[in-house]
Amino acid sequence: MLESTDTFSIIAVAFIGICSILTLASIGDFKRKLLDFVSPIVFVAGWTILDFGVAPLLRLRQAAYDPETLHQWISVLVWISLGFAALIVGYTLDLGDFFAARFPRYEKYEWQPRFVIAASLILGALGFAGNVLFYQAVGGVQNYLSNFNNRILLWNKNIGPLLALRDMGLLAVILWYGYIVRPHIRRRLGGLVTWGLFAVLLAANLIPQLPLGSRTGVLRVFIDIAVIYHILKRRIKFWEFVGIGILLAGFVYAYGEMRFIVSRSHGIRSTQELIDDLSESTSNVSESGIAHEYDQYMSVLARIMDGVPNEVNYLHGSTYLLGFAYVVPRAIWSDKPPSAAVILTDQLFAGSYSGTSYLTPTMWGEAFMNFGYLGIIIIPFAFGVLFKGFNLYAKTSPVSPAQAVIYTIMLRWTDGVVLGDFVNVNGLLMIQFIALFLTCGLVSRASRVSLQARRFRRFAA
Fold it and tell me: Closest Cα partner for 259 from 356, 331, 346?
């Protein structure tokens, strides 16, 4: 009879295979366009396989787990497999036309450089101001790093609007990059303007992100840029892909080391301390704080399935409805219900979790918290339909910077929903969508008016 560890390993490998086969089957003809691969369903499959298949297998190589825990993990994999199958069914039924038709399209007029520059600078300034106000709200960067292990306590009810404002900086980066990635635009404006403004916007958005301790938040900027490059250039060389992957992997490791050092030393008092500690680090991956995260998503989902509804009642869809009320700050709505992440951390893990940020339930866990086992089937199915709508929008819209940037935010929304909780992800990205639609609409309208005025002047002359 196989041991529990061997049984789980076999089932985990089977889970990886099933998810991979279902994903490839949903793509179908491998000679299709690149957008069939740079798609929400591929992102969902990648994160699900990594977090619930590969990561637990790696963790089992470092630590032993009791049979009861492994049996819970096996149950989690079985239910996620069913939910993933429902996700694929929703994606392949081609019901997403309803959603695809409701996103605006901006393809009639070539954007004028001065309007794109103005929009990028305004969004970049808003994002930078959001970062400044955020650090003021938490007592400054020094105070934030000094209380790194308890940084949840620094966040207050007024932080939400600042997070939304801060994200405007990311929109500035990807909007400008989506505009200049085309060679004729770079030739028209010159390298100093195109890459100089890009460097300024990227630095203004990226540097304030570093003290937050979120590798995903920093990496997401580069992922967005890579996606836009894919969509607009329709190609990427193999060695470019490998080189970028190696650089990003090195950054994740180094940044993880820095975050672990700050956490281990109960905060940091000066930048020099951080440099000194980093230089003395053993650079041991198992010690770096990365290893203990391997089983995080699996353990969290197992705890949710064990504690709901025994310890916490079903939420009956409340967190999904609350996701559309995110724009109302708690300073105004004092009794605003908590998100699934807060309920998970403060109730299901009360007294047993000492992390520095809220735990996230993932798409699978939040579905269970709301509707139980049925939720693991119906919620992924609904998201599958929506994800197909995202992909259809990108495939049916003429190639343009607006299409690429909007689709990039759609993929970011997909990632956030799969890995996070709906309230915060949908709330923040809903604001980004609105800001992006308004920006693209204004730039398109201004470009159209400018073009018509130019034609009128030529006709009058």
Answer: 356
pLDDT digits (tens, 9 = 90+) for 149-175: 555 555 555 677 787 888 899 899 999
Alpha helices in 288-421, H assignment, sequence order = 296-307, 318-322, 340-343, 362-396, 401-419
pLDDT digit string, tens, across residues 110-161:
788 899 999 999 999 999 999 888 888 877 777 766 665 555 555 555 677 7
Write the Ramachandran bin of 355: left for phi over 0, alpha for psi from -120 to 50, otherwise beta.
beta
pLDDT 10s digits, 206-224: 888 777 666 666 777 888 8
- Do the beta carbons of residue 345 and residue 320 sit within 8 Å? no
% of the chain residues with pLDDT over 70: 76
d(CA 263, CA 258): 9
Least trusted range by pLDDT, from 66-75, 272-281, 402-411? 272-281
Return d(Cα 74, Cα 370) in angstroms, integer. 22
CA-based end-to-end distance of the chain: 91
In contact, 408 and 425? CB cutoff 8 Å: no
Distance CA 379, CA 374 (A): 8
Residue 223 in tokens = 């992922």
Nearest to 370 by CA among 321, 420, 315: 315
The dihedral sign for the CA sequence 75, 21, 237, 227: negative
41-51 b/e with 16+ CB inside 10 Å = b? bbbbbebbbeb
Rounded distance, CA 432 to CA 451, Å?
28
Residue 337: DSSP 8-state: P
0.85 cut: is pTM over it?
no
* Cβ atoms 204, 169 nearer than 8 A: yes
In tens, the pLDDT along 250-277 reads 666 565 555 555 555 444 444 444 344 4
Q: Which token pair is 101?
A: 């038709």
Q: Give the span between the Cα atoms of 357 and 111, in whole angstroms.
A: 41
Half-sphere exposure in the Cβ direction for 344 (13 Å, CA): 29
Alpha carbons 298 and 72: distance in angstroms, whole number: 9
Pick the closest to residue 381 from 28, 47, 91, 49 (CA basis). 91
Judged against a pLDDT cut of 90, whether residue 378 lies above it is answered with yes
